[in-house]
Amino acid sequence: MTARPPARPRHASLWHMVLAPVIWALHFAAIYGVTAIACAKADATDTARWTIFALSALALAGIALNAWRAWVQWDYPSDQNYVHDAPTAEHRREFLGHAGFLLSVVSAIGVVFATLPAVLIRSCL
Amino acid sequence: MTDKHDPNVPVGEPVPEASPSGIYPPTQEMLDQPVPENLRRARAEELRAAWETPRGWRYISAVNNTEVGVWYALTAFGFMLCAGVLALLLRVQLAVPENDFLDADRFNQFFTMHGSAMMFLFAVPMFEAISILLLPGFLGARDMPFPRLSAYGYWSFLIGGIFVLGSILFDSSPKSGWFMYPPLATEQEGVGPDIWLLGLSFIEVASIAAAVELIVGTVKCRPPGMRINLMPLYAWYVLVVGVMILFAFPPLIAGDFLFELQRSMDWPFFDPDRGGDPLLWQHLFWIFGHPEVYIVFLPSIAIAAMVVPTAAQRPIVGYSWIVLSAVGVGFLSFGLWVHHMFTTGLPNLSLGFFSAASEAVVIPTGVQIFAFVATLMVGRVRTSPPMLWIAGALAIFTMGGLTGVMIAIAPFDWQVHDTYFIVAHLHYTLFGGMVFPIIGGIYYFYPFITKRKMSRKLSGLSFWLTFIGFNICFLPMHLTGLKGMPRRVVTYPADAGWDWLNLISTVGSFIVAAGILVFAWDLVRPKGRQPLTPRNPWNAGTLEWSHDVPEEAWGVRSVPYITSRYPLWEDEKFLERFDDGRFYIPDAPDKLRETIVTSAVDAEPQAAVPVTGPGWITIWAAAFTGGTFILPVFHLYVLAAICGAAAIASVIYWLWTSTAQVPKAPSRDVGLGLSLPVYVSGSKAPGWWAVFITMMGDSTAFASLVFGVFFFWTARPDFPPAGTPLPDTLFVTLSAVGFLGAWAATVVARGQNRRQRVGTARGLLATAVLLALVATASLALALYLPGLAPKTHAFPAMMYAIGIWTAAHAALGVIMLLYCLAGSLFGKLTPRYDADLWNTTLYWHFLCLTGLVTALLMGAFPRLT
To answer: What pTM was estimated for this model as a whole?
Structure first.
């Protein structure tokens, strides 16, 4: 085995940029699966609904944490830069933070939207 | 000799790889240093020789992106015209009530082929074609990273497309709609569904090949300095769409696999009488089908993202917002598939999730449209033919988006489901989201592709005919649908109130056709006498407009060092430096085609690796692969197996003779005081990324089969049915152990080989082969011995399907191990040059996981339920 290269800092990682939508996707798959199983196997609507609420709270907490870290990485108050078009590591870091922050917002909306049916619909039918 | 040790490194120590050395980034003074005239000329001659396009009949062996991309695009456009003719014939039939222009059977074939061809033979391939053609230009790269793979994809597409579309001439097309719902499609007589399943699976393989190529091209072949925040927006979209293809197409391939097993072997996956469920197909189809709409839409809107800043003569407004939009849509579009299935009786709660996600996807989609409009508002807009088409696209797409918001609401969808309202909606989104931007893009990039301009007058004529005709054709369909006319009916009674609406639509469809024909004429009319275009006719700012006029086959004169999003606007000295060959690899001393490999995020140069040149082997490989997919349609299984073996042999020959060749020297001087390795293995190598990406797609297909098992488990009370034989635990365990052992042996072999213990490595590779064979045989025995009968019920059928899937992958794993063993014996794979072994190990990580999941599904799952 060759020696591993030094780990890349978080701010140079594309994976962190897409972490929030990944949480959205996991949340979506989980609530779909929970509903399918709870409704098909047991007709247990309330179990499904409360599990969904718990999962949504968890997902939103994860997205919020990610949004906060992305906001810190974007570091907007320091230089109020939202264009990021310079060929520097700083602009790249801020850009990935900015995009990650915006994706967190969209993902949070996605999670809230997907939770609404469980608030409004109280039946497996 | 092959096992000669590196004299500088003791046995047992890992042989170090060559690494970049010298100066990076280059200074302004270095870039200002002129190149002496005679040196510049000599280097240009070297490049010209290395990149020469084959002439005469050898032309078709070309693999250059500028050739393959054009063939690809023209073929896709040709298929589009055919599918358009089918649409016109459908419209003639529907023009008046109780018409008998087409009989019902032919009508069914025509609408099925219209949809299938437009989606599989036009929309998706067109994205691949245009990306292959343009992406290297956007990225200042010489070519795509795997030119022969592009060519292979193209030939596969051509063969598959002619086969599928040709069936219409023999009255043997599929006729159950482009989504092939069982039981209608599983029960259809004749070869129609088989043509659809096998022909399109073949084309999907080509699509995935293109996705691999485009992702690796974007991630690893950007020019030095083009950090991720400077990447052209088109490349962002290509990246997102490439990844989407990897997760969207495999479920359909898995579905096709099950479907074809049912058609040819009578295994009842979709037959409710024997434990199957037709809805499984709908799930697998739409997990593919809905993201596919966005796979079609995003790259087209990406063209708009290139045209709009040029039209506005200023940088795009909200670059980060557009990236958000592309990535966000890429994710959210996977949460929409059930909105095609609102009427199938799923729990309301589930419908709610998909309805909500369908509404949420509007947010990122809207963001990019607003960013375009904002760019146009703050810029100084110059009207140009491309911008006219883009404006038309935005108008029509927005209309389609608005009806989309309506039908995303389940109760509204219940009213208009399967009516002409849906036909209107989908054509608004696809015409506005795909056809208009693509045509705009062709007007825009035509000077880049052919060095000549298309006609402004014909563009205007074509645009207005298409735009007006489109609205005449499709706007009334909203009303036709609301008045209750169902889709896919061959005719309708005179007193239903649909006749005048249909007549208007038919008139409109012919106006659209006239518009498209004007465009087609403008595209292909001879332009030999026309003067060449100026180099940058639209005064654009992005890299592709540094192209050579007249054309040179080398892609870029030198691979530039990038410091801005719009180098032609913001870097005054750029073109001078570029043309002078002051950037990287301005020469080809060994007459090799090369490209620069850079790191994924910050685009720091890592290597200058050779890329493959012209070859016939790709055509052979595509032809044999075609035979493997096409011959089973006619139940010629032996011939198909022979073709399969020949396809594998062709691919092995292709890889052995042209990829990962041991270089003469480990590094090369690439210019500007920088020396780069010419051979890299592991995660720096484009080939490793290609394997990784392919295996992501492959795992998605496997995950879809696993989804199938759990779907049956939730949807059916009798899965597994009481008293049915279960796979044998002992042999299942043995197979798991075999996969684990083979994987471990492969991983250790890689380390030992790198430490120059070549003999040990070879022994381990042979052991891995043996263990893999044991694992596969155990898997077969685990199913065969207890007497699972796949024709009797979906449960044994599913177990067999997963077993076949894993066994086929194990066979491939064995071939790869033997390839490495042969490489080690014949000097293609050495302790230092071990890329093939890295790639094989990577494959085995995935295979081991597949083997273990298979063992759990067979051994543990049925006993737990």
So the answer is: 0.94
